[in-house]
From TrEMBL:
This is Hexose kinase. One of its GO terms (molecular function) is kinase activity. Coiled coil: none annotated. Keywords: ATP-binding, Kinase, Nucleotide-binding, Transferase. Residues 321-341 are annotated as: Disordered. InterPro entries: Carboh/pur_kinase_PfkB_CS, PfkB_dom, Ribokinase-like, Tagatose/fructose_Pkinase. Residues 13-305 form the Carbohydrate kinase PfkB domain. Belongs to the carbohydrate kinase PfkB family. Pfam families: PfkB (PF00294). It comes from the Bacteria.
């Protein structure tokens, strides 16, 4: 199965507006929704919707509304109890897909709770092909906690994926190669945090058909011990880099509705393809297809397999023959599949 850890879960509330958001103005919502959230929870939601075994590990009270939602949706989960409720996040979406997020800091965790989360992970690793460590860290967790988890999990029979940002991401990278995971999934801004490259220039170059700067930055992470780098580049597409090569994906033109969860859907799509035995090109294709589908859905909704159009995504091998997979597409407007921290 695929096990996810969400150390800072959330209940995600979305408000959809019919007009552009204006500071200080009164707005009337056209729709609202509430979903269980946090990056690892989102990954588990996508995987469960694809009918693949998954387990979400998170700190929460059993009576929390987030846990009730997981139970109602049939998503297997294991909890480390907390004294207070999970955080509540607010997402505001505009008609053009512009997304504004207001995220609470989360409920603090003490050392005993962090150890209990680690224990749950190691308990379920024998059943896991992948363990995905996702999202921000709550108050009380040390900045380098993801690095500690990599060290704890590495001797065990699973592959490790990490999707995080800011201080936890920099702390993880400070321990490379000792803390390097099998897969890291940054967006352009997070790749900038890891390598010092300019995020805007990466996306601009990729949008112009030149993913080379992104590939070079990704390969710098491979040189530091990371096994695979999956970089999401907003409307420019995505890049996958491994020791065997690099690939660039473009997605079909869509009308984005919300960027929330798109990056998590991309990671879930890649993991689903990998456990199915797909080659890197096909895995990248499914990752971008899932991210595109998520960006086209309202609020914090996440895609089912029947909403994912894999064949509409074009993948180009950058340093290998047989350059394309899937149908040709002149451009991509897939919304940023990683903007939700």
């Amino acid at each position: 199965m695929i096990v996810t850890l969400t150390a800072n879960p959330s209940l995600d509330n979305t408000v959809e507006l019919a007009t552009r958001l204006e500071r200080g103005a009164v707005h009337r919502a056209t729709a609202t929704s509430t979903d269980p959230g946090g990056k690892g929870v989102n990954v588990a939601r996508v995987i469960a919707a694809a009918q693949y075994p998954t387990l979400a590990i998170l700190p929460a009270r059993a009576e929390d509304a987030l846990v009730t939602a997981l139970t109602d949706r049939g998503i297997a989960h294991r909890l480390v109890p907390t004294a207070g409720p999970v955080r509540s996040n607010l997402t505001i979406t505009e008609p053009d897909g512009t997304t504004t997020k207001l995220n609470e800091p989360g409920h603090p965790l003490d050392e005993a709770q962090l150890e209990a989360l680690t224990g749950l992970l190691t308990e379920h690793v024998p059943d896991a092909g992948w363990v995905a460590l996702c999202g921000s860290l709550p108050p009380g967790a040390p900045d380098d906690w993801y690095g500690r988890l990599v060290r704890a999990l590495r001797p065990l029979p699973c592959a490790i994926a990490i999707d995080t940002s800011d201080v936890p991401l920099r702390a993880l990278a400070a321990g490379f190669p000792d803390t390097a995971p099998d897969l890291v999934k940054p967006n352009s801004e997070e790749l900038s945090q890891l390598t010092g490259c300019d995020a805007a220039s990466l996306e601009a170059a990729a949008a112009a058909g030149d993913p080379g700067p992104t590939v070079r930055a990704a390969r710098a992470l491979l040189d530091r011990g990371v096994g695979t780098v999956l970089v999401t580049l907003g409307s420019a597409g995505a890049v996958l880099a491994t020791a065997d090569g690099a690939w660039f994906a473009r997605a079909p033109r869509i009308t984005p509705r919300s960027t929330v969860g798109a990056g998590d859907a991309s990671l879930a799509g890649y993991l689903l393809a990998d456990v199915a035995g797909d080659d890197p090109e096909r895995a990248l294709q499914l990752a971008v297809a899932y991210g595109t589908a998520a960006a086209g859905l309202p609020g914090t909704a996440l895609p089912r397999p029947d909403q994912v159009d894999r064949d509409a995504v074009t993948v180009t091998a950058l340093d290998a023959p047989n350059p394309t997979v899937g149908a040709a597409a002149p451009s991509t407007t897939v919304a940023d599949p990683a903007a939700e921290h």
